[in-house]
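anyone else get weird line breaks when pasting these?? whatever heres mine. first is seq + tokens for prot A
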Amino acid sequence: MKKIIVILLIVAIVAGLCGYRWLTAPVTLAEETVVTVEEASATGAIGALLKENGVIRSELGFKLEVRKKNADGDLKPGTYHFKGENSVGDVVDALVSGPAISGVKVTIPEGYNQKQIIDTLAEAGVCSEAEFLEAAANGDFGYGYLPPAGDSLRLQGFLFPETYYFAEGDSAENVIAAMLAEFDKNYTDEMHQYLKDTGRTTYQWLTMASIVEKEAVVAEDRPIIAGVFYNRLEQGMALQSCATIQYALGEVKPVLSIADTQIDSPYNTYTHTGLPPGPIASPGVESMQAALHPAETDCLYFVAKPNGAHIFSKTYEEHMKAKADIEAGLYDNE
């Protein structure tokens, strides 16, 4: 009798092991299967979704594997791509790690203008210049602070610098929407309120931020540069920003000539007072903050040293002395 009980126990154990192995056995997918796990999905619901899409054999096997790996509560929402052979363990590991990033990687650096952004997207095979300009001019992206439709340059400055993943041949509307969503995420309620309190518009603030972005090399100079430019605006002085001249010229020159500063362009802040018509580039968060919270300073001038940091001056005489010192090589070893 004891022998029979032992045999039956062994049979039950073997059957259980075989059942477990079947429940958790790999599934081979001939084609890519895309599964989206929603936020706050329970383990059982995720298992049912995976079984429904043919990624796993059994919801029970999935639950057992999750329990075995002590992963309950660690399964992340998102869109997952499964292809080929995947064991239940592989699937659980993927859900714990989170959705893999896929697509064409495109990095938009801080300080890129719209033309540079378009060239980067076109080179990556995402969308063409013509498609982008059409979408930029006429797209309705749902943000009330954007300039009205009709001008293909109206979104310059709002195209947030970041690394993106786009599908090859993606629509320009989707590309722009992704960039604007990133901008909106960084355009906080505190920023909205502060602009309202100071009487500045989003477009004025972003235009200033873009100039700061292109003028500054050293991070700590950003708020001081913004303070200098706001001081000049308040006193009715021309901004005389080299960055706006370079934008008007379409090229970056280490030294501007007198003729360059006389170029006929609304972006020429040597011959036109006030801000230029709009942003000249996409500013990063530091420049956005600097233009929002400029340093309190009495300075009206600045000049760059060879290392990129600036000397700030209150008077024109101090400014000219700083320039002479730089030309004399007094800061060459910094």
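and prot B, same format (seq, then tokens)
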Amino acid sequence: MLSLVPVAGIDVGKHVLDLGFHPAARPLRCANTPAGIERLIDALRQRGVLRVALEAIGPYAHPVTTALAGAGFAVALVDPRRVRAFRTAEGQIAKTDRLDAALIARFARRMPEHLHPAPEPDQVRLKALSTRRRQLTELIAMEKTRLKQALDPLVADSHRAVIETLEGACAAIEAELDQRIGADPALARKRAILTSIPGIGRRIATVLITDMPELGRLDRKAAASLAGMAPHPTQSGAHPGRHAIAGGRPCLRTAFYMAGMVAARTCPAFKAPYRAMRDAGNPAKLAIAAPGRRLAVPPNPPIPAAKPFPESHLIP
């Protein structure tokens, strides 16, 4: 039997926040400003809400999630793809921000097992740094490609100057990431464990720490799926079907793929299976994805867990 404690859902926009409830109640729209967030919190308290759900955090959601957590609410994140599938399952065609807020609330009420706690502020800042480093790395690669194609010496010098500036900015971000991880004993221990695994260096370890905070608290299948390295079958009727990796977080899939490539080249325990798959006629990418998946599974030692989602706020 479901609890009667109301659950709220928020559809976050750049300028407004739409608040929906389940069981159904009058929706509310507030400005996405400090005053509007205070009004939203008052409305939640008046209705006796304990849990608030919203879709995966974007830049416009940070102020409201921080304020809600500070006010004592349990803030949960839902996967936007699951919410869209839930709308389809309900047969709902109309889509507005207010309808989406109510839809998120219904999803949170009926499928609490698919909710995840909002990340801690420190984790958000680390991920932002990691994302910026990845952006700078991509920009450097683009400029290097343009440099190879430059014919005019002045244009080539311009590319070199931009590359030098970008590399300096990337090094500064890298140093800040290294300092913040080293200053946290739990994260430093997690990095030491990760870098002891073949194929995983400090840079890939940093990506795993910043973009996979669940690391250390997952089972084998969940870890591979979250990393985007789990082979998903596609089969119907007499068709034999095929397996392909899909889903997960793209940055993690790239990190584990590169780690698998390094491990297959340098570690005998990974080199022999890789060679066997290649000799059996498997494509190189598949032979590299296999050790990448193997690497996604073992980094799950008993690392101190982040603050769990309060069980008292779950609906049985």
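btw re prot B: The radius of gyration is 23 Å. The chain has a mean pLDDT of 85.
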